[in-house]
Amino acid sequence: MAETEFVKRAVRESRLILTRDTLLGERWTVPSCLSLESDSTFDQLRQVIYRLNLRISDDKIFTICLKCNEPLEEAVREKVEGRVPPYVYRTKDRIFKCPRCGHLYWRGTHHDLVMGIISKVLELKGDREDHIS
Ligand SMILES: [Zn+2]
């Protein structure tokens, strides 16, 4: 996506732009832009969590469609059989569906991995319990 297009989309959809491009804010009049200071993904995550004072809650993470930003809804299990891998269908109690694009989501190892990384970020600051419930 060209810079012009994603800046216009961010403004139109009231999104925050996260960028490593320190000059983006000077080239455009962007109401919400956070310039990430580090090349390290871990440090970038820490910067975003603390700069935006994010409250990380296990039941709130991964509740938005990654493709279209729509809040996910719990899917009716019988309707997704055959649309997810058999192992997922057998082992996951809850499967979620995007009402806009139909993409299906479930809590896999990725969820635990991300929550582990977030816990490490918050532990460095010493206030993990204030941010994770
Ligand atoms: Zn979607």
Q: Could you characterize the architecture of this molecule?
A:
Helix content is 42%, strand content 9%. A hairpin with a 6-residue loop joins strand 4 and strand 5. It is built from seven helices and five strands. It has a three-stranded antiparallel β-sheet with strand order 3-4-5, with no helix packed on it. It has a two-stranded parallel sheet with strand order 1-2. The chain has 133 residues and is mainly α. Zinc ion binds next to loops.
Strand-pairing-aware structural class: mainly alpha
Please state the average pLDDT score: 86
**Ions and ligands:** zinc ion
- What oligomeric state do the depicted chains represent? single chain
Kindly, what is the distance between the CA atoms of the first and last residues, rounded to a whole number of angstroms?
36 Å
Shape, per Cα inertia axes? globular
What pattern of helices and strands is seen along the backbone?
Answer: HEHEHEHHEEHH
What is the helix content? 40-55%
Query: Low-confidence stretches at least 5 residues in length (pLDDT < 50)?
Result: 128-133
Number of strands: 5
In the sheet with the most strands, the strands line up as 3-4-5
Number of helices: 7
Strand portion = 5-15%
